[in-house]
Amino acid sequence: IVSAMSSLTPPIPLGNPGNQFRVEYIRSISPLSDFEYTEDFFQHVHSLWEDEGVKACFERSNEYQLIDCAQY
């Protein structure tokens, strides 16, 4: 979802720009195959799900590829 935010037309900014470091964290661990899901990971994901920009991007998921169970 956070990767799609900038690719949509018009792009969707984060509701809280202070969450950018959370996006960077998620992007930094996504290519890791042996990542252990820590409490930090879950806190970052939870905070991003609360972000109005992420919510808006999720609502536009018909405009990009997103698995059906993403919200769960």
UniProtKB/TrEMBL annotation:
One of its GO terms (molecular function) is GTPase activity. It comes from the Eukaryota. InterPro entries: Gprotein_alpha_su, GproteinA_insert. Keywords: GTP-binding, Nucleotide-binding. GO terms for cellular component: cytoplasm; heterotrimeric G-protein complex. Gene3D superfamilies: GI Alpha 1, domain 2-like (1.10.400.10). Transmembrane segments: none annotated. GO terms for biological process: adenylate cyclase-activating dopamine receptor signaling pathway; sensory perception of chemical stimulus. This is Guanine nucleotide binding protein (G protein), alpha activating activity polypeptide, olfactory type.
